[in-house]
Amino acid sequence: MLFLLTEHSKKGADVMRPYITEQNNVPRLVIGAPQGRSGKTTFTLGLLRALSRKGLEVQPFKKGPDYIDASWHTAAAGCTCRNLDSFFMGKQEICSSVLSQSRGKAISVIEGAMGFYDGLDLQGSSSTAEIAKVTRSPVLLVVDTTRMTRSVAAMVMGYQHFDPDVQIVGVVLNKVARARHERMAREAIEEFCKIPVVGAIPKDVNLSIPDRHLGLVTNGEMKETDCLLNYLADIISDHVDLEKVLALAQNAPELPLFNETFVPNLAKYGSINKAIHPRIGILQDAAFSFYYPENLEALKCLGADVVPINTLLDKQLPDDIDGLYIGGGFPEVFAAELEQNSDLRCDIRLAGEKGLPIYAECGGLMFLGRSIRVSSQSYEMVGLLPFDAQMERKPQGHGYTIMEANPEQPWFDEAIEIRGHEFHNSRLINLDPNVKFGLSVKRGYGIDGQHDGIVYKNVFATYNHIHALGCPNWAERMVNLATIYSQTKWSRIVKVAGQ
């Protein structure tokens, strides 16, 4: 069965038509690198924008738990980026995500993370290479050629033969100094490694994106986002053979099918009673932007109506919301603006006290406390939870997490294992010693190395980030709690009206 084209210009459709394939033959490439800072993200962004400018529909994926790179991918491709991670997704979820999101697309591009074979253990668990193997995707290796010529071939050859199940099909040379440098590296790779060099990108100080303590700055904060992405696309178009890249992706084998899954009850999403539509507010703005699209989609599939709320502009919560989801982000960067919006902060505090179900992750956790302290400045926050958040220069928690749900909290089944991730430069201080925790830390740091997930009434606030494909019970509980709150709320209204 052939894919159907989505709405597209006739010109775009004509360009795309040669790349439409059979259903399971998804044209795809993994973009890897020998090590971090090799240039794979800037290359990937330029490639995504360059292909989309040709009228091709491109599906981006990002390996690993990453919100910021994914937001840039979305901006570059004009299509929502999805994350793939074998730590909290089974093989079935990974391949199903690639297949479902790639339907109708000319090519799918999966950007890796860190060094290609770098993972959690000696076997390379949760590495970019593992994603390439699980999805049987050919790999394009981006190599920083600084101070190397013929030695580049030895490096590439090592990556080719380190794992026989990995298929490296091409190389992009990055930071090439001059024509002779490019010629020597190109000839060595094609002679000894027997794979093509599909591009050679010159040294350019402008080929970078500003950094921040959590990685790349979010694209929404940059006024010149499109200018930068177009500049990267110009460089890629001028120095990379895009037709050869497409041809390599076209040769990808069929996506495999697996029975291995971490989420056996995902099918229940399609059978929820759609007559019930609790309204769940989502804080979405420059301060709170860390949301996996699957999390929001899971809430919608379970019957919830999602209501966006801007903490920098909106002065109060919508009157009819039945739950609140506060993701991560950079509340410390926008602390002054959040403090100024005292009406909304007060509204959230009162709603939480009245029993509104609130789920908050990382930045959301910080927002619900008394204050955020940045250097010598302290900014008032919601004040619903008894602590202050202190920003530090170095990460206080970083990496994959394994949590176990404690008893007597409404959000997770007791003793269930929750896999997620954390990356925070803040720590909680002046924490009330009588606070109740919903999670016990088995891997990671959480709030104090042993606990995470502060529980207060129907509030659950945690440093731990979760992905709905690896933790579907979260969405069910969120919708159930919101539904119960909605029914209770209307019961109260009817009772008051009757009096």
Can you give me a brief rundown of this structure?
The chain is α/β, with parallel strands linked by helices and 499 residues long. It contains 14 helices and 24 strands. The strands form five sheets. The protein has a nine-stranded mixed β-sheet with strand order 12-10-13-15-24-23-22-19-20. A seven-stranded parallel β-sheet has the order 3-2-4-1-5-6-7, sandwiched between helices. The chain has a four-stranded mixed β-sheet with strand order 17-16-18-21.
Mean pLDDT: 89
End-to-end CA span = 63 Å
What is the CATH T-level topology of the largest domain? Rossmann fold
In CATH terms, the superfamily of the largest domain is: P-loop containing nucleotide triphosphate hydrolases
Proportion of helical residues = 25-40%
What's the shape? elongated
Our count of helices gives: 14
Secondary structure tally: strands = 24
**Proportion of β residues?**
15-25%
**Name of the top-level CATH class of the largest domain:** Alpha Beta
Walk me through the structure.
The chain has helices at residues 10-16, 40-53, 68-77, 91-102, 128-134, 151-162, 179-192, 225-239, 242-250, 293-301, 335-340, 342-353, 363-368, 472-498; strands at 28-32, 58-63, 82-84, 107-111, 139-144, 168-176, 197-202, 211-212, 215-216, 279-283, 288-290, 305-309, 323-326, 328-329, 358-361, 371-374, 377-380, 388-391, 397-405, 417-424, 426-429, 436-443, 451-456, 459-462. With 499 residues, the chain is α/β, with parallel strands linked by helices. The strands form five sheets. The chain has a nine-stranded mixed sheet with strand order 12-10-13-15-24-23-22-19-20. Strands 3-2-4-1-5-6-7 form a seven-stranded parallel sheet, with helices on both faces. It has a four-stranded mixed sheet with strand order 17-16-18-21. 32% of the residues lie in helices and 24% in strands. The protein contains 14 helices and 24 strands. The radius of gyration is 24 Å and the shape is elongated. The protein folds into two domains: 10-250, P-loop containing nucleotide triphosphate hydrolases (Rossmann fold), CATH 3.40.50.300; 267-493, Rossmann fold (3-Layer(aba) Sandwich).
